[in-house]
Amino acid sequence: MKNQKVYEIITEQILEIMAQGIIPWKKPWSARGAHRNLVSGKQYRGVNVFLLSCSGFSSPWWLSFKQAKEKGGKVRKGEKGRQIVFWKPLIVKDTEVGTGKANDKKIFMLRYYTIFNLDQVDGIEAPQEPETLLLEPIAEAEKIVQEMPNAPEILEAAGDRACYYPSRDQVQMPFFQDFDDSEEYYSVLFHELGHSTGHENRLARKEVQGCSRFGSEDYSKEELVAEMTAAFLCGESGILPATVRNSVAYLQSWSAKLKKDPKMVVNAAAAAQRAADCILNREFSKQN
């Protein structure tokens, strides 16, 4: 029940953002400005990326009320924090059926806490970041595509159809020159590569393995995962998706689905993080 409460809290935040006409997983952010904790330096992952990217603050640094106090700072009166989630590992006793033998078993409980942006805190200076030479954004996007391990075949063809064929493990894309700009090309390609991670030789998501009917629950979940995966990869490569392809009606349909299943957005974000890690050849696990 505690997990369910956290799912509902986070989904409500996502719905509030969507009510403003914003699609959280299409919100642009740069890899250099990735949101992270001021004390640990760790980047936020999963659904937290979307929640913080839509916050409107210029600083990528975040910390809890306690952390701000410990560093000699003070959260300004009246400032509203943002709720983020994390998986807390717990060791419980698991009794084997038949033998009655008790073993330690690790489970993960979904928890949430509140953090504040450094822009909301007085008395703490932002860390000085070293100057780095950044590659051209499109060069970074192409690097992701070219270095994806165990990648599907990518074919270009005339027309406006972009899709992934699980049976052939093949991504079909319109010709590069047929797009209005290169950012949109990579945004669409990242979406289709997101679908490809569900192949049986990669992450084996059931929504990709089965034949999901258009508009069905499985279809909707997989589309959400692919959209979020594209957002992660656009952020990783430093490009801004040129257009938001989702219509108002599509946005409203997502709102209805998320209200019906509060777990959907959190689970989809976790699946998208695993998909992005798979494409980027990074270690990933069931918990993010």
Describe this structure in words.
With 288 residues, the protein is an alpha/beta fold. It folds into two domains: 2-121, no CATH class; 137-279, no CATH class. Helix content is 39%, strand content 18%. The protein contains nine helices and nine strands. The strands form three sheets. Strands 1-2-5-4 form a four-stranded mixed β-sheet. Strand 4 and strand 5 (102-117) form a beta hairpin. The chain is globular. Mean pLDDT is 81; it is low at 28-32, 133-137 and 242-248.
Question: How is the secondary structure organized here?
Answer:
Blueprint: H1 2-19, E1 36-37, H2 47-53, E2 61-63, H3 65-70, E3 74-75, E4 82-95, E5 102-117, E6 121-122, H4 137-147, E7 153-157, E8 163-165, E9 170-174, H5 182-196, H6 206-209, H7 217-237, H8 248-260, H9 263-279
Parallel strand pairs: 1-2, 7-9
Antiparallel strand pairs: 2-5, 3-6, 4-5, 8-9
Helix pairs in contact: 1-8, 1-9, 4-5, 4-7, 5-7, 7-9
In short:
This protein has helices spanning 2-19, 47-53, 65-70, 137-147, 182-196, 206-209, 217-237, 248-260, 263-279, and strands at residues 36-37, 61-63, 74-75, 82-95, 102-117, 121-122, 153-157, 163-165, 170-174. The chain has two domains: 2-121, no CATH class; 137-279, no CATH class. The chain has 288 residues and is α/β, with parallel strands linked by helices.
